[in-house]
Design goal:
By secondary structure, the protein is mainly β. The chain has 1 helix and 8 strands. β7 (150-158) and β8 form a beta hairpin.
Length: 171
Amino acid sequence: MIIIVIVGLAAILKLIEYIILGISTNHDKKAHGKGLVLDVPITYQTTWWAYQDGLMINDLAVEVVQSELNLMNSESVVSYTIQGEIYFENNEVSIQQIHISERVNRGEDQSYDRIFELTPVVQCKPKSGVAGKFAFEIKNQHRVHSTRWGANRVLFVCGDMQQVIELQQLK
């Protein structure tokens, strides 16, 4: 009987979280979050990236998917699309994962609050006699938290591409 009550309370708490936050509560460890749609896994660590030289970013597009910011919620979901090419020789190439670096803007240009750097990580498998370019398009989602009341401007950077989005944190 006690177990049934505990399970029932847990289900009610998850339902309340869903109603208040308006965000799915399914956890996906690869996504470092809940309910995110990912083409490519995300990492926050740097490792051996020996094949980044042939990477060329052609386009970055960021859009707000879900943002119901209020007194009880400071979390939004954005979608980003990265298009590019990898030039290669004697390798088969692919995008292994996306590295994300998030930081507070402490630079001279204070027109945005935070900076999110997105880096596609190139994976290579040796294969003799293969050369050319590999075109790719990646669509992922990411959670962004506002850091103060009012306008929160966030700069997304990938290669030479940049885009600023604005989230309005309401009281």
